[in-house]
Amino acid sequence: MVLLLLSSVALAAPEFGADLSAGIAAGALLGDWPVPGVHGAWTVRYDAFLDDRSSGGPRLGLSVIGTGSAFPKQRRRELDDEGQSDEAPFTFLEYGVLAILQTEPEDPWGATFGLGLTRLDLSDYYGGRHAVPVFNLEAALRQRLGETWLYVDYGLRTGWGSAGGPDGDWEDWWTLRAQISLGFHLR
Question: CATH fold of 16-185, please?
Answer without folding.
Answer: Porin (2.40.160)
